[in-house]
Amino acid sequence: MLGIDVLESQGFAAVKGKRIGLLTHAAGVNRRGVSTIEVLRRAPGVKLVALFGVEHDIYGELPAGKNYSDYIDKRTGLQVFSLFSGKSRKPTKAQLKGLDALVIDLQDIGARSYTYASAMKLAMEACFENGIEVVVLDRPNPLGGLKVDGPSLDAEWVSYVGEFRVPYVHGLTIGELALMAAKAPGVLAVPETVRLKGRLTVVPMRGWRRAMRWPETGLAFLPTSPLVPDFAACVGYAMTGLGCSLGGFRHGIGEQYPFRGLSHLTVKSEVIERELIALHLPGLQFRRVAVPDKNSKPVTGLYIEVVDWDAWRPTELSFYLMKLACKLEPKNPFAAASTGSANTFLRLMGSTAFFNALKRDGAKVDVESFLADWRKRAQIYQQQTRRYWLYPE
Question: 310 and 187 share a domain?
């Protein structure tokens, strides 16, 4: 049972008699696939008065990075406040006026650079500053709650694609991230007096365990964004997203297999396949795939299979792709990157030290030493964040 299901089973007690806003998107549905918007609109004793939209809007129809303005939702007649307008990602005092509580129902995918957790964090800050309660309806981390991997975020790179200074694969549900934000000093960008007075209610799921991946929940996976249409892409986002951010590697093959397919702008698939097989990356296999492009001409690439989930380290492939880009491309793409491109990459990847090593050493960069260090740090992080766990292993 998702947080919205538990809320309903409790007679909507956490929001009954309150004027509420709802921060949600297309994947915000109950276990029967009914939109949380509709569930709360029909909830007895609950007054849903406004909607708040994140990246891709409340119905998930806009491409990544596309700004949009406030509008009236034709389906519900409700005011939609855009938290992706290009002006501010944080709810304003005027937008929150008249609300007793802001309900947040967002499906995260377990990777730090996916912006929904950032939207939640900024909304929490605004609500705490304006004396408005936050109610987070919890949802599964599709990758489960035990995988933690990749570099943490250096303080200078905190941004909307990384509001939490956690490893790239963070191993928490969105409700657990909210608890960490509310309870750990320094996570929210508000004075300590404001944080301590802030009111947060997390409505936990029932029946979820940390070892569960999405298919084991029995729930349908709704697209969380246009390029994450299914669980396979969700797994791939953690695995190829960073490695395809700068340089010639591209995720997908033609228009298919977003984040799970792999191709390169100039290097042939058989060369990439040979290089990747030689790395012997734990838990992964690669198979060549050909698909038609928009003009019905064949496009080839590699599909990445996770054949051993326990052995698989989610972000490892990305960092070897960065090294391979230095080896296979005429110029080191990291050394040649403009300041703007480099900063965008660093906001996603998080580690200045690794970026500098890439620029300096190129194809000779010691990826394994960085990975080993990040694994040690990830273990410490996981022990420290157990205090926010809502679910058993």
Answer: no
Count: domains in the chain: 2
Both tokens of 155, joined, read 């303080």
Start-end of H helices in 241-315: 269-279
Segments forming the whole domain that contains residue 252 = 231-371
Write the DSSP symbol of residue 153.
P
Global pTM value:
0.96
Q: Record the tokens describing residue 29, joined without a space.
A: 């549905």
Show Cβ contacts of residue 54 under 8 Å, excluding neighbours closer than 6 positions: 23, 25, 83, 84, 106, 115, 116, 119
Amino acid occupying residue 171: G
What is the enclosing helix (H) or strand (E) of 285?
A: strand 284-292
Task: Supply the CATH number for residue 332's domain.
Answer: 3.90.1150.140
Q: Rg of the chain's alpha carbons, rounded to an integer?
A: 21
Q: 266, 96 in Cβ contact below 8 A?
A: no
Contact (CB, 8 A) for 27 and 60:
yes
Q: What is the H or E stretch that residue 140 is in?
A: none
pLDDT in tens, 221-257: 999 999 999 999 999 999 999 999 999 999 999 889 9
pLDDT score of 8: 98
Q: Which of 78, 84, 49 is nearest to 66 (CA)?
A: 84
**DSSP-assigned letters across all residues of 60-111:** T-SPTT-----EE-TTT--EEEES-SSS-SS--HHHHTT-SEEEEE----SB
Local mean pLDDT, 10-residue blocks, the chain (393 residues):
98 98 97 98 97 92 88 94 90 97 98 97 98 98 98 97 98 98 97 97 98 98 96 97 97 94 96 97 96 87 97 98 98 97 98 98 98 98 98 96
Is the separation of the CB atoms in 55 and 86 below 8 Å? no
Q: What are the angstrom distances between the C-alpha of 386 and each of 87, 152, 255, 333, 390?
A: 36, 17, 40, 39, 9
Instruction: Answer yes or no: do 335 and 245 share one domain.
Output: yes
